[in-house]
Structure formats: C-alpha cells, structure tokens
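Hi X.,

You mentioned you wanted examples for the new student's onboarding notes, showing what a folding record looks like when two proteins sit in one file. Here is a clean example. The first protein comes first, with its sequence line followed by its structure tokens.
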Amino acid sequence: MNKDLQKSESGNQEGQEPQKEDKPSSLMEKIQQLGQTNVPQLSSDSSIHCLTIIGQIEGHLALPPQNKTTKYEHLIPQLVAIEQNPKIEGVLIILNTVGGDVEAGLAISEMLATLSKPTVSIVLGGGHSIGVPIAVSCDHSFIAETATMTIHPIRLTGLVIGVPATFEYLDKMQDRVVNFVTKHSNITEEKFKDLMFAKGNLTRDIGTNVVGPDAVEYGLIDEVGGLGQAMKKLNQLIDQRKASTEGLIQ
C-alpha cells in the first residue's frame, strides 16, 4: 500500500508539472506585451493596480526596437478596463520617463485625470517633458528626493522653425500642455512658463531641470516621498471614497 501511495503521489506531482510550466510562459507573455505581470482583469489579489510609465512614450510613430518605450495603445485599454473593474479601488502610477509623443502623453494624462477611482503618481528617477502632465494628472503626486523633471518648450527637432503655420501649431500645442499642468497642480502659469523658457539652466538649451524638493516648492508636485508614502496616501484616498459613497447611500 505504501508503494501504491507513493506512486499515486508521484503521479499527482507529475500531472501537476505541466500546469507549473504554463504559468511562467503566460507570465513572460504579459511582461513582453504590456511590461507588467498582471493585467487589470486578473488583479484579484489586490484592490490597487500599479501602472508603470517608463522609457519613452511612444505615440503615432513607432520607435526603434532598441528604445525602451511605453506604448499609449497599451495603456489606454488598460485604463478603460481599470475604470470598469469593480475589484480595482485605486491606481498607483509609477513614472521614470524621458518624455515622448506630446499628444499621446496628453491623452494618457486626460484619461488619468478623469478616472473615477483614486489615483496617486510617483516620479522615480525622472518625469521629464510630457511626463510632467502625466505626473500631475493624478489626485495626489509624489516625487523621490533625487528624481528630476525637465520642463522645456515643445519642439520637433533642433532646427529653426521657418514656417509660420508650423510655429503656430507648436505654440497652440504648448498652450495645451501649460493649461493642463497649471489646472492639475498648484504651480502658476507664470512660474511654469518661467521654468519652461529659462536660459542657461540646461546646457545650451532653453528650459529647467527641477529636482524633487524644488518641484514641491514650485507647486508642481504635492509631496516628496517614496513608495511607502505613495501607497499610504492611496489607501487614505480609497478609504475616503468608500466613506463618501456609504454616506450617499445612507
């Protein structure tokens, strides 16, 4: 009987091995396709979904394969799924981006700003260029003490723009970025434009490289902090939303 029992146990273990091999393969597919382990529909183990925005934000044009990118066509369906999934109560957005496509960045920012669920962003490393509107689009924003944010005018290339229509188009797009940032943060339009057009701060360029504490002082970001503080704040916002919802029901 002991031999039969051992055989049955070994048989069960052998039968379970293919299932164990399937999990890593599906996990690798998610990482390769979306850059994360869980898609919103499957986040049953936690009420908080983590959304990462890293590298360069890819928009209408595909970037070279050696570039580390965040594709906006991946993020937008995820944000729709997050909004529809009742199991997800809050979203943590982690940024370490050099910027990228302006319209793609603004599209992501608008979707984050209009989510009905609490959102908290944290800038780690850097949240440069169009990463600034994404960082300020959330209900509350954090920046690591050593992280930086580059604020500069919108430009297509390093060449001088000679066509008036092109300049006017870029100027209007720049106004969209300025209006969004000032609307969703405590920085004034005058101060933001001063940082954007400052000369001599960046090497032979126009713009400003803002370090963590300075970003808070200017009113661009709410607090200096790391992952622990961001999670604590997000849980507080979730509790506040639950309390207000229960009050309305009563």
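Then the second protein repeats the pattern, sequence line and then tokens:
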Amino acid sequence: MKLWGGRFKKETDRLVEDFHSSISFDQRLYKQDIRGSMAHARMLGKIGVLSEEEVQILVQGLKGILQDIEEGLVEFEIGAEDIHMNIEKLLTQRVGEVGKKLHTARSRNDQVALDVKMYVKEEIVAVSNLLLALQAEILALSEKHLETVMPGYTHLQKAQPITFAHHLMAYFQMFKRDYERFQDCLKRADYMPLGSGALAGTTFPLDRKMVAEELGFANITLNSLDGVSDRDYIIEFMAASSILMMHFSRLCEEIILWSTDEFRFIELDDAYSTGSSIMPQKKNPDVAELIRGKTGRVYGHLMGMLTVMKSLPLAYNKDMQEDKEALFDTVDTVKKCLLTLTPMLKTMQVNEKRMLEGAKGGFTNATDVADYLAKKGVPFREAHAIVGQLVLKCIQENRVLEDLTLAEYQAVSPVFAEDVYQAISVMECVTKRNLPGGPAKDPVMKSIEAGKAWLTEAEENLN
C-alpha cells in the first residue's frame, strides 16, 4: 500500500503510476533528502516528539541508506513515486516502526522545497567555481596579448584597432556580471522552507532555526504558503544560466569565425576540434558550435519553467514536479560547457601576425584621421566628411590611407602635415586610446590587475 493510501479503495493504475512517478529523475536529490531528514529527526528529538534513542536509530538508518546508495546497492521503486517516499520506505524496512515517525510535522511539499533549495545552493557554488576558473584563464590569456593588435568590429565590419587582450577582457566583464547574478540568486535561495508543512505549517512546536543552522541556511521562510510554492530561485538560476550561456554563445561564435580560413586569427587545438567523414582537409570547431547550440536548450528550460508557474494558484500543485528535469539539465549543460570552454581557450593558438594584418586593413584608422583634424581645430563633422572622401579615393584606387602622399592629403585639407603618418599608424591608434576602459596597454593592464584582485576576493568569499 502507498504511504498515503489509507483513504483509497483501489490501487493506482500502472500507467498513472509510471506517469506520476518522479523517482527516475529526482533520485538525484538523495543526499539532500537524507541530510534534511537527519536534521528534521534531530530537531524532533530536541522538541520532545522523538526520544533520543529514536533519533539515533533514525539517523543511523539514514546514514546506512546513504552509504548503500553511493555504493550502488539500492534500487529505487517506481511504485514509491519519488525520492522522499523511497527513502522513507527503505528506512522503515530497516529500522521498523520508528521509521514511520520521521514524517511527523513534515509534508512532501516542504520536503521537496527543502531538497531542491539545498541542491540549487550547492550547484550555484559549483557553477561559480567553474566560472572563476574560466575567468582566471581569460586573465592569463589577456596578459599574454597586451600588445597583440587586432581589428575591432561593429556590424561585423572592421571598425577600429584594439588588442586581443582588450577584446578578451570584455568577456571577463560579462562573466563577472554572470558570477554576481549567481551570487544574488544564492542569497534568495538561502531561506529554509521546512516547517511550512503542506501549506499551513504544523501544530508541533518546531525549531525551524535549528534545522536551518544545521543545513547551512542563513534564514527561514516567513510564509508557509510561499515556502512550499516558491520556485523563483529555480527560475532565477535558469535566468542567470541563460544569460551566461548567451555570453558563451557570443564568445563561441567569435571563435568559430576566427578559426575560419577567411580570418585565421586562431587555431583550435586538435583535442577540441573534429574532422569530416568525407572531406579530409576539414578541422571543425564542433565544440564551440555545440556550446552555441546548447544555449537554446537552456533558454528553453527557462521559458518552460516560466510557463509552468505562470497560472498556478497557491499553494503546491503537481505541475511543480516539472521543475526538476529542466533544472537538472540546466545544471548539467552549464557545467559541461564550462568544463569544455576553459581548456579550449587555454589550448588554442593565437595568430598574432594575422591579427595585426587584419587591423591594418579595412581603414580601421580612419577615425584617427578625423580625430587628427579635430585636434587641429577642424569641426569633427567636417573632419568626418574629409576623411570619408579620402577613404572613397583609396577604395577606388585599391589603396590604404597610409599609402596616400602628403600632397594628396593636403589636396582635401591644408591642415594635414607630415605628422599625420604617425597619428594613423595602427599601434599609435591603440596606444593613444589610453583612457580608463580603453584598449591601450596601460588601462588594459590595470583592468587585468583589478580582475585578479576581484577573482581572489571572489574565491575567498565563495569557498
């Protein structure tokens, strides 16, 4: 008989049993469920609901189940529906009638809310550590390429020269915001819901703060209805994960472009590339493409969860069982992407010469010519038009701005002098952009040093 089967005359239809059961996926929560149950048992002992002997029997029984699960000795039952009832059934089989006392003053509604919150908290820390490792690699790579000049783009058209370090540090800032979003999510997940019961708490004088302290929660939930029906922390985790995946996708798209024959800015290591079954020359950036593709998968989980929750009345509804598979897959996907992306960046080869050649083409120094004129008193809009004429002339004659003679420059504006050639050299274009946040070596180095300090503090606070 089901643990809840007292008021039922018939057994659950086997099709319904299979449809209803969540043990196939929520067995992942066994550690959290057992830890929560041990804390609950100890608390019941403290308030006098259980004797000290009963507490010890329950705790030792739960520890034995945990060990057996981790050794692969437990086969979960679909008929027991979920991880909570599977463990309770195993416990009762092992310790006898006292096992039936464990569920006193507790509902599966607040039990599952506790388990999932514990899981999310743990996975936020795991994802955050992997994210910090990625950021450390970006800092190391940036430090190697402080003087590696490359073209910067807008609209995927060459715009102005920057450095590869400057480009990489843009992603460091993105990932820094991602890290902070996960930490914010952690704060809001840090409310312990056990004691909310099914929806209206319990008549037992529970010491909720004792349980919260044992399980590492900073706070307890303050409304029993919200305690069992809140899934905001899951949605927030998925939202933070979706933004992180979007940043992964942007970086991977650039890696894919840079590794093409048209760009040849980088070459991926053989260990992070694949070949073609028909074309022997191919070296495909499949890892980057797959990360880019998995972004849509995580987006889908976020939208699915928002849709599940959008019309649910208070408090708990079975719809909420749909949160777990989406959450688990989001966690797995994000972690796998982090575990793959970091070494892929570390092992890729950077073609500094090709990047510099790219920066010298496409008139990336045209803005500097306009700035040159503006600094000599020419209104910028007029300077813009003058340089546009020079660029058009170069395009028509298949030349670059550096090829023009001083006479040709002065033909469109007498303000030009010999010093224009120094002003428009690619290295000078980068070096002069020395303001905070700019691509020159000094501000980028300061950005890297600030990143290192932030990283150290983040690692200390997280662990």
